[in-house]
Amino acid sequence: MAMTRDEILKEIQEVLVDALGVDDDEVTPDATLMADLGAESIDFLDIVFRMEKAFGLKIPREDLFPAESLLSNTEYISDGKLTEKGVAELQARMPHTDLSGFAANPEINKIGDLFTVETLVNFIDSKLNAAA
Predict the structure, then answer these.
(1) Which of 41, 75, 87, 131 is the most buried (most CB within 10 A)?
(2) What percent of the chain has pLDDT over 70?
(3) Whole-prediction pTM value?
(4) What number does CATH give the domain 1-58+120-132?
(5) Interior CA angle at 113 toward 84 and 53, to 5°?
(6) Of all helices (H) and strands (E), which one includes residue 8?
(7) CA triple 122-125-127, angle to 5 deg
(8) Which residues contact 62 (CB under 8 A, 6 or more apart)?
(9) What is the CA radius of gyration of the chain?
(10) How far apart are CA 45 and CA 52, in angstroms?
């Protein structure tokens, strides 16, 4: 089922409004899920479930939010930051995310800022186009 990026964005906006109880106008492409929209880790399960239903896709949580498993690997973490190898691994697992700004100062506590509405749009767009 081919969808335009605008159609995907509209559907994701609806998912986030329902899952997080935020207003439509808060769900902008550059809004971060946690800082701007108030999502907590438990909300990610609900968001993934709602996106699966909305787009008719099976979305392994690890595909959309791979950072969790990186944080337990000492090879990827040093002094509260991702190592160069950690950043490379994160980029490999999140090809739908622009890490250029994060890579300059890859503090672990800033990983949550990578999850924006645009990240979700890119992820779904890549899944729908790969399936097409």
Answers:
(1) 87
(2) 98
(3) 0.88
(4) 1.10.1200
(5) 110
(6) helix 5-20
(7) 110
(8) 68, 69
(9) 15
(10) 11
Residue 116, beta-bridge partner list: 32
Tell me the per-residue pLDDT of 46-72, one tens digit each, with 9 for 90 and over. Answer: 999 999 999 999 998 778 877 777 888
Helical packing angle, 117-131 and 5-20, nearest 10°? 130
Q: Which helix (H) or strand (E) holds 78?
A: strand 77-78
Cβ atoms within 10 Å of 10's Cβ, excluding its own: 15
Q: Where in the chain is the domain with CATH 1.10.1200?
A: 1-58+120-132
The predicted-structure confidence for 89-130, as pLDDT tens digits, reads as follows 999 988 988 898 899 999 998 988 999 999 999 999 998 887
Residue 82, SS3?
strand
Q: How far apart, in whole angstroms, are the C-alpha atoms of residue 68 and residue 22?
A: 25
Which H/E stretch holds residue 81? strand 81-82
